[in-house]
Design a protein that fits this description.
Six copies of one chain form a homohexamer. With 241 residues, the first copy, chain A, is an alpha/beta fold. Chain A is built from seven helices and 13 strands. The longest helix of chain A has 23 residues, at 190-212. Chain A is elongated and about 70 Å long.
Chain lengths: 241, 241, 241, 241, 241, 241
């Protein structure tokens, strides 16, 4: 699905930076719309979700095709997506930005976790959200929504390019979520973005310390004063960054 | 107001199931829009709100009819609703889906609680939400909103059929809220829906255990493989469900 | 900027009342739209934010004027606002009610705090919200948003009259935030509103106690029964209010 | 229904002024929200719709109560509203600001016209709008909408106070529509508002002529220069206004 | 693509009925969401657009994949859709309900017309709308929008199931548009829906005539009085319907 | 206000091209958000509006500052903007994207026309829209809106950078409107954009003719086949373009 599998060291780097920093690194390359808009973690986990995207596309439900009996079909795309999402991947659902009905519930999301997925994101809402919040696997949505997804959505395609929260998501793109939000890194850029973000994070951590100690942001953030670069070089040595 | 008063055993059943399960049971009967959209608990209580609906309808406020002095009228519908909502009932407010101003504040909601109401729901917002969240009675709204309700709303009718969060609510309908959301069960269906939901919950609990233990959802959820029904029968015995 | 500096005793009074009570006091004077709509605290602090407004206006970003290099300009209005916001003031940002991109992040907001600001409000969203939430200074926004503000906004004006969450904000107006929401008091009214709100709060506290003890709201809230005013007078003595 | 029936001379006055002028006259009395927001004429008639409001309230549809067979009930409120709306009245529908489904279609609206209604307004949409547009009776809505109203709405109440396009509408209020929009005048104010609007219109017509002839608006609109009042007095004589 | 090609006689029937009537016929079969919401004809043509759906799916644009040079690719899905849409078909575009940028412009739509398409629908907006309005082929959109579609959309799939204006659209479904709006008939139902709609239209035309002549709608619409069915039978003979 | 006055020949060029073509020319330079979103002409004039922007900024109205008497102030910014907008300029109003109340009415807009303005744009709505539509000067808005602008807006700044329909507008930028929509060209780019757009228009006119005559768009639009460039060269000679 992608020629750019996620390397363990890239994953480790992406676990150590914020979505905000990644957004800026992407912005430098002209990519402005990679943040998945208006989703939030069901629970703050204090660690990042990182993994390649495995996608599910919903379309508007037509009533005659979306009776509960549909779920008896072992090939129903929603069920199949949960059972085939590769280990370490993030299941990203295009729920057409509507939380009127659920994108999935706790049984499916638990199954996804047991199968080894890295996380799940929908631009709709989860049912049983109070339970999904307690799972060990990160999950992101717009808001809790109890009606079954059949009410408005039909799962139609697995692992095709989709939109999620107005962001473009291609299968294999690297999805990163922190306690604030979620962003999508094009697969071919993941490595360089991860490296750059680690560098940026080092400087941001340094700058934050300086600011906490009373420094002005002018000349420091960004580093337009030479002395700040010197200080930073020392800080890196001292802090082993 | 209704020929279908809420039986204690039905209430007990509805306290033991999730809104998501109820939504599916209603869906089976062709009722797709009974969830009150875009409301959330002010605080997660870890238990369900269950009670018949007692309703209050707001209309847009006309300034000359909505000065603060209006509240001096002992028959002001908002005040009267709080003082006449029967014990065990849920006060449901049609605030025209706007949280621009408050639907009510902590003094009124505390009074409602003291009077024995089962809960309160508005598709607008509460003022003093930080205090209402701490009350022992569940409350649901869209978001905190501090301006007095007179700013945009006039309380006009008590206990008439209303819309709340785009759901139809008839006086006497059974309102159930959990830590995720709120749903409205037509009064005449409450008993059968409650029974069915308890059955469904038993299976869902069983299925979740199986999934946690590594089972695939295919053939299990829903139960299209005979063996899962057999296992479930055993599980019920073992677990006394 | 204003002929009505915030007196310490007024500040103290405003720290002891709720935004809801202030909204009603303003409503009595015909001011209905002073609440900043659809913002919330990043963390509930259990105390009020109070301070005169210092404003920042954003306009839609034009790409050629909003490359990252812009931040190297020491006079960039966003940076300058953070470095010049007077001690004790609240920085209020007109982010055009969009949280598509960030209004600011943790380094700038930390600097603002270190410089002695009383708080910060945007009708957009903050990046690094998880960190800003932990700061000792109150912050209010719509939702976390990770993309850099350059993505959609250009900081264009400092300390001009603005709109924030559809409320009018003039430099020097007194901004008060509690655990629910934020309101803007015209500078020339702050003193009288603060005094009146303290009086109203005393009565509300009394009324809430009465309600908790079983009293009806009719005749009590508002106080249309003479006996309640008598009781209140006694309560004030007993409680030293 | 109202103690303030519409007098023929008031009606005549209201036919000769614009909704904009009426909005300003109401504004002077503190009434800011009487315009029905976001509705438009199906066709520009070049004349005003004027009449007392006769109202119909919709609530969200529950599927089991809203099958097509419901229309066979001669007392179905939508049908009944059409058959009982008094001559010269305007049927105003609270369609919950949704044009997802229709508020009514051409057969009902034609019947309303034949029965002598002065017009019809919904904050939803009409089906068969292309035909209704050609009728001799003015009609206002948000946009054409073809699905039957049962899809989302149940007609529940006739001639109760409602909201329409966020404006408060009481039965008997005077509804005026022109080629731009629609406004609601509280019944007890209709006479004085009509008189004042006629006066204002005279001055506006005079001012427009002056402006077309090259006059500055400063001192003319509003008339703060004495000479303009003198000129206006002459103009009234000359033009018999 | 479909086992249910559109028969000439079905097409003729669908050209002679309104979208409103079709919506009701679908409603009777439990299909409530087949109307494409919030689109309108660029120009009222006074005749129906009828044809099987040929679909184009847009996803959010990623800047590096959506430079103008992309259009030089002869296989670009937008261009290809225009060049491969079969004669007599309606090109239906899923533009993610956004008219921020264009779905297509006059050169492409003219080409579509020259190639024999029956019409075009987008839930976004067309550029050069003033020119497309003058073409002989019907076109429907939300509003004119001048920016190139690359600004927000990437054409990604041809002739897959899509959503358009929240309606489900499968390739081969029959799309019908009149001067008000557009609806989607599942391919396998087109024939029976067309027949039923012709019958319904006959009765509606009869009922409208009766209403114009002064008849009440009670007992007439729907026909619950026997005499109206008798009159209708005569009317059909007289009018050859 | 700008170092880039609009040259007569640039104006002439901009009168001869469409907003869509200008949008593409700006897109090539990385400017994606220059179209003023969701505004439309009050009447299609069949010719372009072209002129430098003169801006007016509205902020939310505070009731005590926005009584009708304010208009008696000869320096009221709305009045002053109308009386000082330079000849040939387009008055662009930032009405905070709300048409709840009017941005201006026919007397002011007529005065603007008499004073020689090139046009007027608001992202709100005009009152007396039916009259403004008939004026000889182009006007663009969202929808007709009758309430006086004081209802929600206070005019606060003249000729500062603003947002209008989410587009950045700097005083002196060149504003172009056609029968579809409006776009803003940064002043320093106007000349080169105008020249390029004229060239593009020539090719588009040629391509449209080819398409009308049966040509495929592949290789023609854009011109990736050499032969089309040859044909175009001939066409230019023949057509004197």
């Amino acid at each position: 699905m992608t020629d750019h599998p996620l390397k363990p060291e890239t994953k480790a780097r992406l676990e150590a930076v914020s979505v905000a920093t990644l957004a800026t690194a992407l912005y430098k390359r002209g990519l402005r719309n990679q943040a998945i808009q208006d989703v939030r973690p069901l629970a703050q986990k204090g660690r990042n979700m990182v993994g390649p995207a495995f996608t599910l596309r919903y379309m508007p439900a037509r009533e005659d095709r979306n009776q509960l009996a549909e779920f008896r079909n072992p090939d129903h795309p929603q069920r199949k997506a949960v059972e085939t999402c590769p280990q370490g991947h993030v299941l990203v659902m295009d729920s057409r930005k509507s939380a009127y009905a659920a994108s999935a519930g706790d049984i499916l999301i638990t199954r996804l976790m047991v199968r080894g997925a890295a996380g799940v994101v929908t631009d709709g809402g989860f049912r049983d959200a109070m339970n999904i919040a307690k799972l060990d696997m990160p999950a992101y949505h717009n808001r809790p929504s109890s009606p079954t997804n059949l009410t408005i959505n039909e799962a139609i395609d697995i692992n095709v390019p989709i939109g999620c929260g107005d962001a473009p998501v291609f299968p294999g793109d690297i999805v990163v979520g922190d306690d604030d939000s979620v962003i999508v890194i094009p697969a071919h850029l993941a490595e360089e973005i991860a490296e750059e973000a680690v560098e940026m994070t080092a400087y941001e951590d340094f700058a934050l310390e300086q600011v906490q100690a009373g420094a002005s942001i002018i000349g420091l953030y960004p580093a337009t004063r030479e002395e700040n670069l010197t200080k930073f070089a020392e800080w890196r040595k001292t802090n082993n960054r």
